[in-house]
Write a structure and sequence with these properties.
The structure is a homodimer of 392-residue chains. With 392 residues, the first copy, chain A, is α/β, with parallel strands linked by helices. In chain A, 40% of the residues lie in helices and 18% in strands. Chain A contains 13 helices and 13 strands. The longest helix of chain A has 25 residues. Chains A and B meet through helix 1, helix 3, helix 10 and helix 12 of A and helix 1, helix 10 and helix 12 of B.
Chain lengths: 392, 392
């Protein structure tokens, strides 16, 4: 993981670099003299930092052709490299690869998806991702200028092992960062794709800019993620956001995780279809919903369970906004109404007026967008180029 | 609230000040020349920053008497002011005031408590706190050198209003920071005392140094707090950690909060005594426990409810350590065993081997100690004097 384990002096130096980059971003092109005055750094330190940033390609110097004659040689001005700060996100979902990319201004410049067989190998998935990325935004993305790749994967992501450590518990995943780094030549950050979707909703989606967000995804599995203080919350051993495995029915069915009565055994797409009994798949169920009281009744029961579990989590962590996503959220009010009713019933009364339940906004691109958000938040390289609106 | 709302230039300057203070803390006394070399700041900036810090009393200059003859005038060295960095914590509990203090090295130098009637007014409680503080550590605490006061109070603490804003919803509390600031003349930080106890356990107690901690307090009320990434988690509107109001028995008793079946209706001291039926108070209940199967049975049922609720929260947020505190925790294994059994039963199987349930270590001083920890973490004044072990 490209996390920072430098000592105090390394950190001090990085702080100076970040300061210079921030000044260039906020003020635009500046001369060394102006940078010195604005930063308070000594001439020696400043020249040293600028030289390193120029060597690394983050900063470029331009000497303007003087529009009018002046004395002495023209003063070189420094600017951020226009390509620095591009990032891509790749979501390796169960049966599809989703990719998205942002430019230097951290605007999303494109996203793409392609379905594949569930048993496709990692080499082939990475090939697929590379082709999708190459086609993004009409090829305007320069792979050579990438600052980082964020990657979403299915299942819990514990501390990612070093690239060269084969991992018995999850050998395929352990090799993925290395595979991607070889292919793209930049740092790779990996996390659970559902948690990344939570971060995406809090960055660009239904809860954009909200500091504390609870995101629940209702799909073939049930999971979620927490954004705490604007950052993705991981928890010990990467096991936060497992709302699907909170016990919803103590005497309920055995869950794939091994315990009984998890929310996932009640609120997954499969569980909903089972409870309904006749719809062949989710589209058929959703199509029948407006004129099928049995379907509405199933969602009422399911929504009540969901709302009760959400209330427990909300009482514990007090999110500003709760976001419901995943394919099942397309059921709309037939699901949201019972969820909200049970949520309010089991919230502390003092919290009820502040409950804010929203539908997810980003759909299937959420994981890839969240992977980008992860890179923008966490990469020591990209953190140096904060988006303009993230500056204090 | 003494939070920082400066613009970028103010922040830049504060960053430089923090850098100088950190260097003095880690390196000990330094000359201006050494500070310039270590900080990378220009001579002008450095002298300006040092002058401001000396004016504010944070830094003092000493000119050593040369032990041997040297040429030129002796070089002044700069050190942190020995009294800067003292802080006190005050916990205004329902029927007692607890105080604690730390010295410049952030070592706890003393704590004290005094019980009072539940209806004692705020002026009198503050008087009581002041007398307790004055007696701390044999009077070695210099009130004039205080950097900040952290204060714990009962009940939810929303955004604290400005000092001069009377607050209809909680008028007594709204005046408290002003009252304390007038009395002690330093910034006051206020939070819920149970949440502060969580921070204390994660700073000096059962989970010292642990990043993600869930703390549940079983007393006459049931509450708790979350430490996330080493910092106190507040949640939206200051309503995080309300584990006592998670529904534990859907058909259960009406809670003081207004909803039904809250954990507090099952696991508070009052609920335990009610369920037992004969013990007059908690000491009597605890004394009877070793030879009273009915008491053990009550705790088995209560512990099961507690563990089930804790598991839901753990699945959601994945803490490293779960701490049980409050007077009821003194029941020991008769309570902890059923809690742990239910916790493991309802945790995701993958998380079970990592569950770490501990008894709180700080007792009734926890709130006051947590109030100090809050000041050390959050005061813009004290944040400039990080404890040595908190430095990267």
């Amino acid at each position: 993981m490209p996390l920072d384990h430098q000592g105090p002096l390394g950190r001090l130096r990085q702080g100076h670099e970040e300061l210079i980059l921030r000044l260039l971003r906020t003020h635009g092109p500046l001369s060394r003299g102006e940078l010195g005055r604005l930063s308070g750094l000594s001439r020696t330190t400043l020249y040293d930092i600028v030289a390193a940033l120029a060597d690394g390609g983050a900063v470029v110097g331009t000497t303007p052709v003087p529009a009018e004659r002046r004395r002495g040689r023209p003063v070189e001005t420094l600017t951020l490299h226009p390509d620095a700060g591009q990032a891509i996100g790749i979501d390796f979902a169960r049966r599809a690869v989703h990719v998205a990319a942002v430019n230097v201004a951290h605007e999303v410049i494109g996203s793409a998806s392609q379905a594949h067989a569930a048993d496709l190998g990692w080499e082939d998935r990475v090939d697929l991702a590379e082709r999708l990325v190459a086609g993004l935004a009409g090829g305007t993305l320069r792979l050579g200028a990438l600052s980082g790749i964020g990657v979403g994967v299915v299942g819990p992501v514990d501390d990612v092992p070093p690239d060269d450590t084969p991992r018995a518990a999850r050998p395929a995943l352990a090799d993925l960062p290395l595979l991607l780094r070889k292919r793209f030549g930049v740092p790779v950050l990996l996390d659970n794709n559902t948690r990344l979707a939570a971060l995406a909703e809090a960055t660009w989606g239904a809860a954009a800019g909200v500091q504390d967000v609870l995101y629940l995804r209702l799909s073939y599995g049930v999971g979620g993620g927490l954004v705490v203080g604007g950052a993705l919350h991981r928890g010990a051993h990467g096991l936060s956001g497992e709302f699907g495995h909170i016990t919803a029915e103590p005497e309920g069915r055995r869950c794939s995780c091994g315990k009984d009565g998890c929310l996932e055994t009640v609120a997954s797409i499969g569980a909903v279809l089972d409870a309904h009994g006749t719809a062949a798949d989710l589209p058929a169920f959703l199509a029948a919903l407006p004129h099928d009281p049995a379907a509405a009744q199933v969602l009422d029961t399911v929504g009540t369970r969901i709302g009760t579990v959400l209330a427990a989590v909300c009482n514990a962590i007090g999110p500003d906004v709760t976001v419901l996503g995943g394919e099942l959220a397309a059921a709309g009010p037939a699901l949201f109404r019972p969820v909200e009713r049970a949520l309010l019933e089991h919230l502390m009364p003092i919290s009820r007026s502040r409950a804010d339940l929203r539908a997810a906004a980003l759909g299937e691109a959420g994981g890839a967008l969240g992977a980008i958000a992860l890179v923008l938040h966490e990469s020591p390289l990209l953190a140096r180029y904060p988006a303009p609106d993230s500056l204090e």
